[in-house]
Write a structure and sequence with these properties.
Shape of chain B: globular
Radius of gyration of chain B: 20 Å
Strand order of the largest sheet of chain A: 2-5
Strand order of the largest sheet of chain B: 3-2-4-5-7-6-13
Strand content of chain A: 15-25%
Distance between the termini of chain B: 47 Å
CATH superfamily of the largest domain in chain B: Thiamin diphosphate (ThDP)-binding fold, Pyr/PP domains
CATH class of the largest domain in chain B: Alpha Beta
Radius of gyration of chain A: 17 Å
Oligomer: heterodimer
CATH architecture of chain A: 2-Layer Sandwich
CATH class of chain A: Alpha Beta
Number of domains of chain B: 2
Number of helices of chain B: 12
CATH architecture of the largest domain in chain B: 3-Layer(aba) Sandwich
Largest interface: A-B, 17 and 25 residues
Structural class of chain A: alpha+beta
Number of domains of chain A: 1
Largest sheet of chain B: 7 strands, mixed
Chain lengths: ~100, ~375
């Protein structure tokens, strides 16, 4: 989608963005070099990945993991590192699975 | 009310009357007494300011940025290495358009380590985006602190403002200072109206966002617009303050016996006081000499300074700091203002580094030296060759 860039005269003072929760608008997932692949068969839903994820990108419903928000996950791999049952595997974003 | 006080006390008095919401400071010679006076006011319950005794100047400026973004009126003070430590965050404060007022007790930067006056600290922050004003006396330091508050907070400006006062020469010497009544100052500075205050939780805002190549340039251009608004705001605030105080501040610089002057000194800070004495003495002997004392250094009033100097034959521009590898910064400011047009002969004098005394005889030497000057010369005043 083409985004129309604003002129300097149209910007709020000091680069302030009126309103909060701007990450919702900014799909930082495109920065990712490695992709976490979650295996629902192995997952025991301990939620350690959800607790540690710095980008709030582990999706849960009713206290159970349902997947990964790939629009915002930057691929840091913390989820895979803390998973006690190796239910998350990090794979290269290009040329790999997923 | 007229009182005898140091430059420190004059600044602290202005701060007491402004009574900012937050003061975050770290002690450093020759600024410390400003912080000490203010801490005493807080301890005695004279002001309701939140004093944040931080662990470094980097933290002091960071606390100022946080408090200002939250919506507070903020003042700080530092000198030399302290400013050097603040500079990283000072650039951010300017880019976030936060109206933080700072008293800078000018002191030479290390090394070698030195605690005395020159303007290398102010020059370090030259391109930070902060407005910079220079005081000649303790009285001016008081007056300019009050004006700085209004200039910084003007909606079109919203930038940090640094009030420079020469370390020791002004900070530690006692002078007669006339202060305004508390109510008058309160009315003059008024209520602070923050923009997008972070504490307004019903209207959230995002501060300090990342800017990629697609927006960084536009944001810096928009920041420049804040600087462009300063001259107009400076003059109107100055006019209002002059009426209020009865002290005639007029213009971006003081033109002292400049109208018919053939040989002129341009200088910033306390040395202007010495230069006035010398101008008076030489005038009595019939010499047509004058002084241009810069109050507003950033943004630099190029056109007005050029106009004021255009009638002179020779001008000595005095920089109290080196710009290694080039002429002094003030010299370059003025020389560039004359680019492409006829101007007087300009010579650059580097003087007073690390607190080197600047007696009247040295100023007289500069005026004498202007009889035999070539544009582009870099001279050192009071240096052992």
């Amino acid at each position: 989608m083409a985004v129309e860039l604003k002129s300097w005269r149209e910007l709020p003072i000091g680069g302030v963005i009126p309103g909060g929760a701007t990450p919702e608008l900014n799909k930082t997932g495109s920065w990712r070099a490695r992709r976490p692949i979650w295996d629902p068969e192995k997952c025991i839903h301990c939620l350690q990945c959800w607790l540690h994820c710095p980008d709030d990108s582990i999706l849960i419903r009713e206290q159970k993991v349902t997947g990964v928000d790939y629009d915002h996950c930057k691929g840091c791999g913390v989820c895979a590192a803390v998973c006690p049952v190796d239910a998350i595997e990090m794979v290269p974003e290009r040329g790999g699975a997923g | 009310m007229k009182k005898v006080m140091t430059g420190h006390k004059a600044v602290a008095e202005a701060m007491r009357q402004i009574e900012p919401d937050v003061v975050a400071v770290y002690p450093i010679t020759p600024q410390s007494e400003i912080a000490e006076y203010y801490a005493q006011y807080v301890a005695d319950g004279i002001v309701r300011t939140e004093l944040v005794p931080v662990e470094s100047e980097h933290s002091a400026m960071s606390a100022c940025v946080g408090a200002a973004a939250a919506g507070a009126r903020v003042i700080t003070a530092t000198a030399s290495q302290g400013l050097a430590l603040m500079v990283e965050i000072l650039y951010i404060a300017a880019s976030m358009r936060l109206p933080i007022v700072m008293a800078l007790a000018n002191r030479a930067l290390s090394g070698p380590i030195n605690i005395h006056c020159d303007h290398s600290d102010a020059y370090l922050a030259r391109d930070s985006g902060a407005v910079q004003i220079f005081a000649e006396s303790a009285q001016e330091a008081y007056d300019l602190m009050l004006m700085a508050q209004r200039i910084a907070e003007h909606r079109d400006v919203r930038l940090p403002v640094i009030v420079n006062l020469d370390g020791f020469t002004l900070t530690h010497s006692s002078q007669v200072v006339e202060t305004l009544p508390d109510e008058t100052v309160k009315e003059f500075v008024g209520e602070y109206e923050p923009l997008y205050p972070l504490l307004d939780v019903d209207n959230p805002s995002t501060w300090g966002p990342f800017a990629m190549p697609d927006y960084y340039f536009e944001l810096k251009r928009a920041q420049q617009a804040g600087m462009e608004a300063v001259p107009g705001v400076f003059l109107s605030v100055q006019e209002e303050y002059s009426r209020l105080s009865g002290r005639p501040y007029k213009g971006f610089f003081e033109a002292y016996k400049l109208d018919d002057a053939e040989r002129v000194i341009v200088v910033m800070g306390s040395t202007a006081g010495t230069a006035k004495v010398v101008v008076d003495e030489l005038r009595e002997k019939g010499e047509r000499v004058g002084l241009l004392k810069v109050w507003l250094w950033r943004p630099f009033p190029r056109a007005e300074v050029a106009e004021a100097l255009s009638g002179a034959k020779a001008v000595a521009i005095m920089d109290r700091a080196l710009s290694f590898g080039n002429m002094g910064a003030l010299y370059l400011d003025i020389a560039s203002a004359f680019a492409g047009r006829e101007g007087p002969i300009f010579v650059n004098y580097i003087y007073g580094l690390g607190g080197r005394d600047v007696p009247a005889e040295h100023i007289a030497q500069v005026f004498e030296g202007l009889k035999d000057a070539v544009t582009g010369e870099l001279r050192y005043l009071g240096l052992r060759e």
